[in-house]
Design brief:
The complex is a heterodimer of chains A (383) and B (425). With 383 residues, chain A is α/β, with parallel strands linked by helices. Chain A is built from 15 helices and 13 strands. Chain A is 46% helix and 14% strand. The model of chain A has no long low-confidence stretch (mean pLDDT 93). Chain B is built from 15 helices and 16 strands. The chains are: A alpha/beta (383), B alpha/beta (425).
Chain lengths: 383, 425
């Protein structure tokens, strides 16, 4: 019985929107009842993204359903193209058209033929089974597939070696800060600039640079299928590893060195290691000193949870148990707060306005986490 | 606004489905009725809710009902149909869900049906009735499929209608319900007048927040006075089921209509002569002035005004011409108001206005540009030369009777005045 007493799991459609709307000069068009999209806009408004794609809903009526009329969708696309409102159009399904068997893919193909000057890509993960993960996976994969078409040469305005990032998304807290930290490490460590960053703020032109990148950084498994496709078709290698913690980030750098065939800039690496190692040492020290309350509980089994959890338990010395630090989304933390709660995932309660918060990934992420945990461990309020 | 406006004449509209979208939509859309239903029921103590639909409905419903438990033990759960139920129905699962809610302490459950269960033809009404037959808790069904309408107004009145399901027939008492509130000056005067009858009437005011136990006493009321249009279908239902007469005090902005409503209240409740309400004289003066100043003017109504047809009818009676109406919903009980507008020789273009960035150009073809006539819009500003009565989510404050009309007339009177805000300094 699918009764939810709290918040249901996000759907495939949400996964699609959260991934695609981050391409800020795109239009994400939903053929379906209004209402969902307005809420989706509210979600996007609260992510802290200053710019994101235009979210559009066609709405539909009983007559459209009964007679299978899709004119609203066609007219809507026509208007977006005519008015030059977007550089790419993503057609996403919703439950009612799925129910009546609207063939969005065929409509997308027809519209692509009508408007050859603009990418029109249709997606499927709006059915009754698709999960958020499936939605994200499809979003990344379809974008790659579109860019790998024979007649698509991509855009090459990059001046340095570049990298793609797949898998960052607005369902994780600090996703913009994490993106910035990855870009900072890539710039200072390997003198590389970002090409396509799927899931965080990115333009369609940047997405089109994807095929020119030297490497794809896959942060979570949802981006793996797309990265593999890019590797298979274009020979762009990928690294599936999320840089969490001190050792985790060093390992990430090491793997990159191997894949890129060059060493990271030593002066940068030494300085970063010194800073992070100092914070890690102090945090370890106090954690050992107050072992009785050095408990940490992190919800989830994805790269975010595993990455932070491994850092906390293997590197710092926390015990994985409830009661001390709880790290989850706002709803979970409201219902099951720890002595010290840290939001690491976004929920309907999240309202992010500052893209320059401290990250959770990379060297600075390790520093930030050490700082937060150290605050709990040493705060007399918790003793 | 480059797109061509699609609209039909008011006379052509016979149902919700007849209201066209104004444009080919490149817009995010509006809220669905589930949103307004939850927002309404959030204010009703001891009423639990169960949203039945797809993950989006359940997930995003938490933007309204943030917690699964309300302050007085209300439960706000969601039922997300799985792929199997989309094909074979969700009756069994839904009954089990209602039983679980009962076990968790829910007494009254409003079951909100969204698009997909409605599309597969799930008979939620039957399910709630079956559940009610064998359980302590009661359930009421609400069909809020968005594809059956454009707007979200149904969320309000279907919620109040659903609450009627929690009432039982009971002996009539000297209780008068004021449905929609009466906190204004005229509301207080009305309450004072109601106490002058030969019978001693208890007055119960139902506004946004109230207790279910207080509400269910409505089946014993002897008369209902509706001051907010969102309660009108409820009053009609109560009249049909429990034979409780009602007056819709918000049915007219005109003085004659208001006077008639007050007369009906006085006659039905055997009250003393209708009092001279404080705003009566002011309304008469303002009305004469506005009629003189704005006669022959043309207007557009672009905001969501719940009583758009009633407002338009009044402006027509003041010799103003409606050129465009944004209409959220059209129900059969609105027919009389449409007829009245048509009787003035006005037959405005009507649509569900999608583009809220509509500019003056967009209305060019509506006869809005007739030389020599003053033009104004009720909604967002659309041009420097066009007057504007700003209206967004709300237009007039929650006033009743003559006081409401006076507030409207003051706004209209202010349209042609260019007052210097610093004049008094």
């Amino acid at each position: 019985m699918p009764l939810y007493k709290n918040v249901p799991e996000p759907s495939g459609r949400m996964g699609l929107i959260w991934s695609l709307a981050a391409i800020y000069d795109s239009a994400v068009i939903e053929y379906g009842s209004m209402g969902h999209m307005l809420y989706a806009q509210k979600w996007m408004n609260q992510t802290g993204l200053i710019k994101y794609g235009e979210l559009i809903s066609t709405h539909l009526s009983e007559k459209d359903i009964a007679l299978g009329i899709t004119r609203r969708l066609e007219e809507c696309v026509e208007e977006v193209v005519k008015l030059g409102r977007a550089k790419s159009i993503f057609l996403i399904p919703s439950s009612v058209p799925e129910m009546i068997g609207t063939d969005l893919e065929s409509i997308g193909e027809e519209l692509s033929a009508t408007y050859p000057g603009i990418p029109i890509i249709s997606f499927k993960a709006g059915n009754f089974k698709a999960s958020r993960e499936q939605g994200m996976e499809e979003a990344y994969e379809k974008l790659v597939r579109y860019l790998l078409k024979k007649d698509n040469e991509g855009i090459d305005t990059l001046k340095k070696d570049s990298f793609n990032v797949f898998g960052i998304s607005c369902d994780w807290s600090r996703f913009q800060a994490d993106t910035a930290e990855i870009c900072r490490m890539m710039k200072n460590g390997f003198n590389m600039e970002p090409a396509a960053i799927l899931g965080s703020s990115c333009s369609m032109d940047q997405v089109c640079q994807m095929t020119k990148a030297r490497i794809t950084l896959v942060i979570r498994k949802e981006g793996l299928k797309a990265a593999k496709l890019l590797y298979k078709q274009n020979g762009i290698p990928y690294l599936y590893l999320a840089p969490y913690g001190f050792d985790g980030t060093l390992q990430w750098i090491k793997e990159l060195e191997t894949l890129l065939g060059k060493n990271a800039e030593q002066s940068f690496l030494i300085k970063e290691q010194e800073e992070a190692a100092h914070a890690k040492h102090i945090c370890q020290l106090y954690t050992r000193l107050h072992k009785e309350r050095a408990n940490i509980w992190i919800r989830g089994e994805d790269e975010l949870a595993k990455g932070i959890s491994t850092f906390a338990t293997d590197e710092i010395g926390f015990t994985f148990a409830e009661g001390g630090i709880h790290m989850s989304d706002g709803v979970e933390l409201r219902d099951n707060p720890g002595a010290f709660s840290i939001e690491i995932r976004r929920s309907i309660l999240s309202q992010s306005i500052n893209p320059y918060e401290l990250p959770f990934m990379g060297f600075r992420g390790a520093l930030n986490l050490c700082g937060l945990w150290h605050q709990y461990i040493t705060d007399r309020e918790f003793q | 606004m480059n797109q061509q406006l699609k609209a039909c004449r008011l006379s052509e509209i016979e149902s919700n489905q007849g209201i066209p979208f104004s444009h080919a939509v490149p817009a995010v859309g509006h809220h669905c009725p589930m949103h307004t239903a939850l927002a309404t029921l959030q204010g009703v103590s001891r009423v639990s809710t169960l949203v039945v639909g797809m993950p989006e409905c359940g997930f995003y419903s938490r933007y309204v009902m943030e917690t699964p438990k309300g302050p007085n033990g209300e439960l706000h759960y969601t039922y997300v149909l799985d792929a199997n139920e989309v094909v074979f129905g969700c009756r069994e699962g839904l009954l089990k869900a209602l039983e679980e809610m009962e076990r968790d302490g829910a007494d009254a459950i409003a079951v909100i049906m969204t698009c997909v269960p409605a599309l597969i033809g799930e008979d939620i009404q039957e399910i709630t009735e079956s559940f009610g037959a064998g359980h302590r808790a009661r359930a009421a069904a609400m069909d809020l499929a968005h594809y059956k309408r454009n707007g979200y107004e149904a969320g309000y009145y279907e919620s109040y209608l659903a609450l009627a399901e929690f009432c039982d027939a009971s002996k009539k008492e000297n209780v008068v319900f004021l449905l929609g509130g009466a906190q204004s000056q005229e509301g207080k005067e009305l309450c004072g007048w109601l106490r002058t009858g030969s019978s001693s009437y208890d007055i119960v005011i139902m506004e946004d927040d109230f207790e279910l136990s207080q509400f269910t006493k409505i089946s014993s009321s002897c008369f209902n006075i509706v001051t907010n249009i969102h309660f009108l279908p409820l009053a009609k239902r109560l009249e049909a089921i429990y034979n409780i007469p009602y007056v819709f005090l918000g049915e007219s902005y005109g003085r004659d209509g208001i006077e008639e409503a007050y007369k009906k209240i006085g006659t039905s409740l055997l009250l003393r002569e209708t009092p001279v309400f404080s705003h009566l004289q002011e309304t008469a003066k303002l009305e004469a002035r506005v009629r003189e100043r704005l006669e022959g003017s043309r207007f557009l109504l672009t905001a969501n005004i719940p009583d758009a047809l009633i407002l338009t009818e009044y402006l027509c009676s003041l010799s103003m011409t409606p050129c465009f109406l944004h209409l959220e919903e059209y129900q059969q009980w609105m027919k009389e108001w449409k007829k009245k507008i048509l009787s003035y020789g006005s037959n405005p273009l009507t649509a569900f206005l999608v583009e809220d960035s509509m500019t003056e150009d967009g209305f060019k073809k509506l006869g809005f540009e007739k030389p020599g006539s003053y033009r104004f819009v009720i909604g967002k500003e659309i041009g420097e030369e066009i007057g504007c009565l700003k209206a967004g989510r709300s237009f007039l404050p929650p006033l009743i009777g003559y006081e409401r009309t006076a507030a409207l007339l003051k706004l209209l009177d202010g349209l042609l005045r260019k007052e210097d805000p610093y004049a008094a300094l």
